[in-house]
Amino acid sequence: MGVMETAPLQILAHRGWWTAREEQNTPGAFDRALAAGFGIETDLWWQDGNVVISHDPPRGSALSLNDLVDLYVRHQSAAPLALNAKCDALAGINRRILAPLAADTWFFFDMSVPDMLAFRRASLPFFTRESELEPAPSLYESAHGVWLDQFASDWVDGTVISRHLHAGKAVCIVSPELHGRAHETAWGHYREALASAPGSAHRVLLCTDFPQQAREYFTA
């Protein structure tokens, strides 16, 4: 991952840096995130032969992945970009769309296991997933990193983070508020874990609805 900020981890703005939910996955939210130096997590679908940004099946016009890449270029950003594969067959994506981005800053995640095999065959960077429901991440050896999801409980701790870092994987922690829970206690656990793992800043990411709060908290 590219260097983004002085925090002991890299911050991904979940669907951009938005102040109201209707701003999620919009050009304004992405522009605000990149202007502040945050990375971005967003959702991809196919629509009429194009790769577009939408959490749900797209209807009508939708922002294209090309448009988001253009924003990155405009901001000269090397912040990480996490691309949630919301449908199959995205492994056939044209690499030229993402070619203008800095090397080793973007990755795909959340695809089905059969589709993950296609990403591996195409040598596209992807994160596998570990959660309460998936204690053994699929295709772990081939994955560039691990998406640590917390659907029902705050189970990610320093032991989990260290295990993956020692295996040579990057990790992205899904902050509890993405699943409707308070985040403060969990963030404290992450901060303690990172304090005991110097040099891991470029390999640990936090996907959050509160990017500015996260920056202030983890740099305090």
Structure explained in plain terms:
The chain has seven helices and nine strands; from the N terminus they run βαββαβαβαββαβαβα. The protein has an eight-stranded parallel β-barrel with strand order 1-2-4-5-6-7-8-9, surrounded by four helices. Residues 1-5 have low confidence and may be disordered. 29% of the residues lie in helices and 21% in strands.
Keywords:
single chain; eight-stranded parallel barrel; 220 residues; alpha/beta; disordered N terminus; TIM Barrel
Short précis:
This protein has 220 residues and is of the alpha/beta class.
Instruction: Indicate how many domains the architecture comprises.
Output: 1
Helix content: 25-40%
CATH homologous superfamily title: Phosphatidylinositol (PI) phosphodiesterase
- Give me the count of strands: 9
The CATH class is identified as Alpha Beta
Distance between the termini: 23 Å
- Which range does the strand content fall in? 15-25%
pLDDT averaged over residues:
93
Return residue spans where pLDDT drops below 50 for at least 5 consecutive residues: 1-5
**CA radius of gyration:** 16 Å
Which structural class best describes the helix and strand composition? alpha/beta
Q: Counting H and I runs of at least 4 residues, what is the number of helices?
A: 7
- Named at the architecture level, the CATH assignment is Alpha-Beta Barrel
Would you tell me which CATH topology applies?
TIM Barrel
